[in-house]
Amino acid sequence: MLSEIYVYRKKENEMTLLKIRSTLFRFAVILSASSLEKSDRLSVKSTFTVMAAETSRKLHATDLYVPIEPKQWPIVYTNQYNINAFGMQKLHPFDAGKWGRVFQMLKEAGMLSETDVVTPKEATSQDLLVVHTQKYLDNLTWSSVVARITEVLPVALVPNFILQKILLKPLRFQTGGTILATKLAVEKGWAINIGGGFHHAHGEDGGGFCVYADITLAIKFLMASDPKIKKAMIIDLDAHQGNGHERDFLNDDSVYILDVYNGAIYPRDSKAKAAIKKRANCLHHTKDEEYLEKVKSTIDEALNEFEPDIIVYNAGTDILKGDPLGNLDITAEGIIKRDEIVFTKVRAKNIPIVMVTSGGYTMETAKIIADSILNLKEKNLISRESDNSIKHTFPPKGNKESEHLEHAETTKKTQSEL
Q: Rounded distance, CA 268 to CA 240, Å?
């Protein structure tokens, strides 16, 4: 009899918990639909009048542009990036401590120390308002909204002042890191933010664990602060469509978006797709050879069509075979080769490039990112002494792709002289 009562009460408790989770989820969906509905009602004309005004105006006083010391690498990181939300971060497949593990691996490999990287500052509300609406930032003071965006529903039960400190503050530091790294890329020819890449967030909303639109912010900050930067390219190679920056730059001819992604998974944003200038769709379980060929061809075509002053490379590792969300079959070696291809092709044209690490939902992700950065160093595609000219390091040793590109450039120059 007692065992039957115990079983009954256990089932009753489980049902109560399911009802609470279901209610929270429905509430999150309602909030999401309301936000998107309002976003879609905005006219394209009014949206981009605001965008143009923000891009052309002078940058407000900000502390985000931290100077780089002569002996530092143009690599941006702080231990403030890492998230420890009382274990709730484990309810989402995202590895909320991968940034610290990447840095630790680079230290163990002898490439970096704490003083070798540039420490970013946290993006303030004034910084975020360059792209985000005040209404959206106000909405982030509601824990239910944060729960919807981060896709961790129990977050809705946590007091918001706690979420601001343990969850949103690390993301604001990473956002500041992307903004800083983009400036350093112009100064040094390249830069890496060991974090950032929140490509589902846009001016009026977030989603997919992306709260702040760091890529859009970085481009707008740079264009507002440097009159020489008039055109930007986003190379988005995360497994998911980068619908956040795509919504921000709809009908903006100064920003060229290349996106290679699995179109059968989240977010399937047809409105945002209109902003993509060069797109390659990957089917489920696409493997290395096919994927790398798509990357090569799309980048070649994009660089032939558009001459940017800065390139933001969203280097998501959720394309890895076994990733629970990407559903592609790219090996670790394939990801490392992908990053090498991107840097080789971009640096061959002396275009500043900034890399952000974006998505990746397995515990192998951190090591792959660290190994890729070490590979870029080994191939002389990045160096501590780099400036915005890479003639002294190009072509990278042992890199046939770069040798081919250099030969093509020489042939092209010779033909033009004839």
A: 9
